[in-house]
Structure formats: structure tokens, C-alpha cells
């Protein structure tokens, strides 16, 4: 099952990346890589209105160590019920106003 989920996440990341990059290729955020989607695993620390704090593993693609940070929930789409203590696998990207989840899956 983890291999299937990993492949699904990779396919989702590619489709989101391609879908976002095409209309935004000439955006005003030239120094930001908004089309890049990153993946990590972690534990939910706090759920708030419109955001979730996750203690995540290192993210080598960004040269980030393990840390706890807050991600905005996506404006569109369905987010599964999340609670503090849930282990999660998630995808996110950087936008002009912070980091936004693209997808998240809890493993209870």
C-alpha cells in the first residue's frame, strides 16, 4: 500500500506542477518556485481554522532540517479530518503568502 500511495502522490505532484506552471509561467513571483510541489511526513501538532502545524521530517529538496511549521489548508478541495497527534504524509508548495498544503493524508 505505501508504494501505491507514493506513486499516487508523485502523479499528483506532477499534475499539480504542470497545471500550475502553465498559466503562471510569467508570474510576478520570479524568485519563487510556486509550481514546485514538495513531499514530507510528519505529525500534526495543532489544527486551527484554515491552517495546520506539522512537525515534519527533513526536506532535502529545500535543504530544510526537521522542524515544526504551519501550513495553510488549501482554499479548494476536501481536507480529511485532522487532529493533533495524527501522523501524516503531505504535499505542499510555496505561494506568495506562505506554504500551502496541496494534499494531506492521515495515518491513524
Short description:
This protein is an alpha+beta fold and 108 residues long.
Structure characterization notes:
By secondary structure, the protein is of the alpha+beta class. 19% of the residues lie in helices and 40% in strands. The chain has a single domain, classed as Copper binding periplasmic protein CusF (OB fold (Dihydrolipoamide Acetyltransferase, E2P), Beta Barrel). The chain contains one helix and five strands. A five-stranded antiparallel beta sheet has the order 3-2-1-4-5. Strand 1 and strand 2 form a beta hairpin. The radius of gyration is 14 Å and the shape is globular. The model is unreliable at 13-32 (pLDDT under 50).
The helix count comes to: 1
Percent in strands: 35-45%
Give the overall shape.
Answer: globular
CATH architectural category: Beta Barrel
Low-pLDDT sequence parts: 13-32
CATH homologous superfamily classification: Copper binding periplasmic protein CusF
Strand order of the largest sheet: 3-2-1-4-5
CATH class descriptor: Mainly Beta
Radius of gyration of CA atoms, rounded to a whole number: 14 Å
Overall average pLDDT? 77
Structural class per helix/strand content? alpha+beta
How far apart are the termini? 15 Å
Q: How many domains is the backbone divided into?
A: 1
Q: Which bin fits the share of residues in helices?
A: 10-25%
Q: Write the H/E string, N to C.
A: HEEEEE
Q: Characterize the biggest β-sheet.
A: 5 strands, antiparallel
> Quick one: how many beta strands?
5
CATH topology: OB fold (Dihydrolipoamide Acetyltransferase, E2P)
Amino acid at each position: 500500500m505505501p508504494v501505491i500511495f507514493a506513486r499516487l502522490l508523485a502523479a499528483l505532484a506532477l499534475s499539480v506542477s504542470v497545471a500550475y506552471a502553465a498559466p503562471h509561467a510569467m508570474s510576478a513571483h520570479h524568485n519563487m518556485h510556486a509550481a514546485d510541489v514538495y513531499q514530507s511526513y510528519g505529525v500534526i501538532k495543532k489544527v486551527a481554522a484554515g491552517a495546520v502545524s506539522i512537525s515534519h521530517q527533513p526536506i532535502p529538496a529545500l535543504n530544510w532540517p526537521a522542524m515544526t511549521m504551519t501550513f495553510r489548508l488549501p482554499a479548494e478541495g476536501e481536507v480529511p479530518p485532522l487532529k493533533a497527534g495524527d501522523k501524516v504524509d503531505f504535499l505542499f508548495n510555496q505561494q506568495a503568502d506562505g506554504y500551502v498544503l496541496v494534499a494531506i493524508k492521515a495515518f491513524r
